[in-house]
Design goal:
Length: about 90
């Protein structure tokens, strides 16, 4: 029995779409936050960073620390980082 390409697409497309729209878990967000903060600390090297980069890093670290103290979602911290980095 031969399955057409259209039938395969009809089966695969909803699976792919649902995988793309799935929200990250709390553990995944925590990992993303940790990795991004570490990257921001080391890239570029501290001696080559400008004041804006240092200020952004300080804001991000402060927000992550405050969110963790308030037991907010790590995904809230991740959203803050993404927004802060893309707005600058």
């Amino acid at each position: 029995m031969r399955i057409s390409a259209y039938a395969l697409l009809a089966i695969a497309f909803p699976l792919a779409a649902s995988a793309e729209t799935r929200q990250p878990t709390e553990a995944q967000c925590r990992q993303l936050v940790g990795q991004m903060v570490q990257t921001m600390r080391t890239t570029p090297p501290p001696a080559q960073r400008d004041k804006d980069a240092d200020a952004l890093l300080a804001r991000v670290e402060k927000t992550v620390q405050e969110n963790r103290a308030a037991r907010k979602s790590e995904c809230d911290s991740w959203a803050y980082i993404v927004n802060a980095v893309t707005k600058n």
